[in-house]
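Form 12-C: Joint structure prediction
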Amino acid sequence: MPLFFKKKNFIVLFSLLGLQFLALSLQLPQGKERSFLENLVFEVISNVESGLTFVFQGAGELWHDYLDLRQAREENEKLRKENITLTQQNLLLKELLARLEKSATARKILQEINRDIVIAQVIGLDPANFFRTLVINRGRAQGLKPNMVVLNERGQLVGRVIKPVSWLAATVQLVTDSSFAASVRTEKKNLVGILAGNGHGRCFLKYILETEKDIEVGEEIVTTGYDGIYFPGIPVGRISAIYSGQGLFKRILVQPYFSFRQLEVVAVVKTSSKEIF
Amino acid sequence: MRVFLRAGLAVGIALLLSWQISRSSVFLWQALNLTSLVVIYFARKEGEIFGACLGALTGVVLDSISAGIIGGFGIPKTLLGFAAGYTAKRVDVSSFFSSLFFYFTLLSSELIVWSLLQKFVLKIPLSGKALLYQPFITAFLGVSFLWVAEKLGPRLVIWTKKKKKGGRF
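Section 2 - Result
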């Protein structure tokens, strides 16, 4: 028997490492369904995190209430949430009205949208890479499911809900994640491409041909809706740099509108793109 | 049992603090690895088994709130906890500079293991230059804080006792 097996310290260490390597190997390759273990841990931890955030913020708010006038603050909060909801509704309404003008089904759909926006608070960022995911305090209890669109306070694209979604929390994949992809177009010239995160706070607009001349820095990028996940017309960001002469396609950098440091509240649109369009 | 609760509470506070820091400075958030500080601190006091277990648990918590995979944080933190406890028993790390070197070495090793796992096993792109400064900034701020707390703590207790005695008269 090797010497180190006689030492219980090393047995504990190798057991712990072995278990984690086993868990690691069970979950690789990435991209497949989340394992039961991952879902279970997320379910437990997200609730603890949600509770801790609640306590932490509760204590902070108590202090603010002491300093501010309580009623004015509550009113402000209410108006702020209302404002976020209205911004999201306005965004969707604009797009809908353009598409469904004079349509008999428009009224029915608009009523659906009205109740299908969930306001959620950000309760955690990805400790490995903050440009990948975040955790919000709304989950299955509020009807959240994977692939629901997540917008910021101004109705600009933040990302989409991905697995795991627990009872009271959900994970949001950010547009800056390297595995993110969405069909987008340029606002003015209507050039269609694929938006993908670069994992470092920006995105790439892919598959715009090198020969294309009608594209310039500063142009706005919006979603097309072709992917069946994101509604058409959601503002994503602006082109910040264009690099040419590197192959068949241009290399285009996009600066997303949302700033994750300002992301305290987000809006999740429960109605799917397919249901409306 | 009490030490488990204390360690759990410390990890919870470290996570919350990290998240609050992220609101004001992204650089500081990346440059300060508070959970590892907690793991090293407790491993140094309680030994390598405790350190490895605490590291594993902290890692699982971090993995679950990230989009990563269980083990991505857990493996480096388990090794960190074990190495911290094991080394602290054999090497004198009581002075400020030896303690700084001890923390710096462990944090650097953890960062290397974590980066290799992220890059080559999990294929996740690493982000932020602040990561390069993480071992030094975390070690320096952590050791400074602990050093001040250790120096001031007993004096504060004596001062409080004296004040209480004075109050009776």
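Section 3 - Comments
The helical segments of chain B are 2-24, 26-31, 34-46, 48-65, 74-90, 96-121, 130-168. The domain at 2-165 of chain B is CATH 1.10.1760.20 (Arp2/3 complex 21 kDa subunit ARPC3).
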